[in-house]
Design goal:
With about 425 residues, this protein is an alpha/beta fold. The radius of gyration is 24 Å and the shape is flat. The chain has helices at about 15-20, 50-60, 150-170, 170-180, 185-195, 200-215, 225-240, 260-270, 280-290, 310-330, 335-345, 380-385, 390; strands at about 1-5, 40-45, 85, 90-95, 125-130, 245-250, 275, 295, 305, 345-355, 370-375, 395-400, 405, 415-420. The strands form three sheets. Strands 1, 2, 3, 4, 5, 6 and 7 form a seven-stranded mixed sheet that branches. Helix 8 (about 260-270) links the parallel strand 6 (about 245-250) and strand 7 (about 275). The chain folds into three domains: about 1-50 and about 85-145 and about 245-345, Rossmann fold (3-Layer(aba) Sandwich); about 170-240; about 355-420, Roll (Ubiquitin-like (UB roll)). The structure holds guanosine-5'-triphosphate and magnesium ion. Magnesium ion binds near residues 13, 14, 33, 34 and 97.
Length: about 425
Amino acid sequence: MRIGLVGKPNVGKSTTFAALTETVVEIANYPFTTIDANIGIAWIPLRTPCACFNLVKRMEENGRIIDSDSERKGSICTPRTGSCIEFRRIVPITLVDVAGLVPDAHQGRGRGNQFLSDLANCDALIQVVDASGTTDIEGNPIGEDACNPEEEYDFLLHELDAWISGILNDSWARGARRAQAEGQIALVRYIHSQLSGLGANESIVTTSLSSFISENPDLDVPWTWKEDVVSQLASNLREKLFPVFVAANKADQADPSKWMGLKQRIEERGGLIEATSAETELGLRRAAKAGAIEYRPGDNDFTISESAELNDAQKKGLDALSKRIENMGGTGLISLISSVVFDRLDRIVAYPVQDESKWIDGDGKILPDALLIPQGSTAKDLAYAVHTDLGDGFIRATDARSGRVIGADHELANDDVVKIHAKT
Ligand SMILES: Nc1nc2c(ncn2[C@@H]2O[C@H](COP(=O)(O)OP(=O)(O)OP(=O)(O)O)[C@@H](O)[C@H]2O)c(=O)[nH]1
Ligand SMILES: [Mg+2]
């Protein structure tokens, strides 16, 4: 699971990244602070309780005494990555924070759009917009009404489309000639070969090409398509390759009226936009790391640690953070990422194990992996998600909850615990 953070300069992409990955990156109030992409891991909570909850119940029913340490509030799993407290399992997502994009970047303005290849293989993009409207379209902080978030949104989609369109148009004639000789499959293969570096696969290209052709019944055969038609196809492909969701950031200093127009437009089209305050999330994470507060990312409140010794300035700072999240109902970041992953990209969680009765791996770790896989994934897909060898050698699997044997094509459900039997 990989999500890219995009947008014009100086909107809070790196602040979002720093908060969610808890790493130190450059953040500053001027454009083009970030040049080279930052790549890191963010941790998000699953929406359903960790499967170790069911394991505890099963063990209790069998009269076993559970040995869980009190700090973990009941959780007994041993996550290989992430953590689980009170059955709230945290799983990793890769985040990519890139340089800011300005209008006409595809023609080389600003930093150009070469860096967009850093977004290759992202499952989705989150466009960070400046909901407060205090930075102009190139990210210069010039105050009130410097820019309208709708303008930001429109130009960014345009630049992304122009990026893909540039790649396709470059040698369209060659690809189209092949289609003329060998039919549509040759065109699919050509487009795939041009866009495979961005993470396209044949199935995405086929879906996109078919929908594009059926939405435009008056189109002539592909080898006659001019640049503008190829650009429209590029836009269709972009929507499938990189669905864009929006963080209306700096919401802490934005009058909602500033970005309501954008919200309405996006929601009318079934899109997703959420108010965020990356700066607040970053402040909370830092305070929690320093031991001053107890804060669970995603919550809309926090408590001051009993052991914290705070000076007046720190108390004032925490008070301000508290007011912000109270007003906003949280900082919006975890809630937005969670909606993207679970509602929009339809990811479910599956727990591969080696022992179907104890739900452990070969080293005795309990439910060590909680993998996010696309809805509709089969037992064999899960095997591949664990390791190519396990997929290649797949024989059958066992649903560890029911004990039933399941085949390669069996579609998994959210929270499934699965033992995979494979040739080694
Ligand atoms: N008020 C407020 N300021 C924010 C928020 N998020 C970021 N900022 C400020 O906005 C400025 C730009 O933040 P960055 O994270 O560097 O922005 P960026 O989008 O990565 O910028 P480039 O790398 O230049 O493209 C900094 O001064 C941040 O402190 C927020 O939620 N609220
Ligand atoms: Mg940055």
